[in-house]
Amino acid sequence: MSLRTDPVLRAPPNADWEPLTSVLEQLTPADAIRWSSFPTPFGEMYAAVTFRGLARLSWDLPSEDDFVADLEARFAGWPVIQDRDGLADVERELSEYFAGARDRFDLPVDLTDLRPFQRGVLEAARSVPFGQVVPYAELARRIRKPKASRAVGNALGGNPVAIIVPCHRIVKSDGSLGGYSCGVEYKKRLLALEGREDLLSAG
Is 80 helix (H, G, I), strand (E, B) or coil? Predict the structure, then answer.
């Protein structure tokens, strides 16, 4: 079951109140997915948090309904609540990043719904500093899977919190950019924002 409102949970019209009350009594504030959207140079950005941290960040979905539907599918059984105030730090840090006023994120992230291998890849990618790049093969070595470069690339392709976990900083060993789940053009724009125009002609 999922409910959307801002920011207090309310029952939908004509709800069966007794089952609804029973479900809500078993939930705590930690059992909700809170989301919001805000404008960025990439278009409307959609973000969602759990009580652990940022769990989803997207700008390639056509509407907020698609984003909410994705949340409801991924976090089945959790109420999904629109809450702009609850995501104010996410909006602020990303706005500062796009404005060139922030070179690291202090936001906690929640990757607990991912498989251990993908979680390890993303945690390693998160350690790559602003303005630096690392080859896929090197990232594979850092997680002690030196033959898993292709699997590393696939794991990065499913990054649910792009930019915050900077998979755009992972490139091919020959210096070319490699892929990016939201489109290589966005990868170029992020690297340019971080002062790496020298990489943009590499393709």
Answer: strand
Catalytic residue among 167, 170, 182, 191: 167
The answer to whether residue 153 sits within a structural domain is: yes
- pLDDT for the residue 202: 64
Burial of 115 (0-12, 13-18, 19+ CB in 10 A): exposed
pLDDT tens string 185-199: 999 999 999 999 988
In the listed set 98, 127, 150, which residue is the last one of a domain according to the structure? Answer: 98
Number of domains in the chain: 2
Residue type, 60: D
pLDDT tens-place string over residues 50-68: 999 999 999 988 789 999 9
Handedness of CA 129, 133, 138, 143 (dihedral sign): positive
Report the alpha-carbon distance of residue 49 to residue 110 in Å, rounded. Answer: 8
Question: Distance between CA 4 and CA 59 in Å, rounded?
Answer: 20
SS3 state of residue 79: coil
Average pLDDT, the chain: 86
Question: How distant, in Å, are the alpha carbons of 65, 118, 131, 144, 149 from that of 73?
Answer: 12, 19, 35, 32, 29
Please give the Cα distance from 68 to 173 (Å, whole number): 37
Contact call for residues 140 and 148 (beta carbons, < 8 A): yes
Q: Catalytic site residue 167?
A: yes
Residue where a domain stops, chosen among 49, 65, 98? 98
Give the C-alpha separation, 132 to 189, whole Å: 14
- Specify which residues 36 forms β-bridges with: 47
Q: Which pLDDT score is estimated for 30?
A: 63
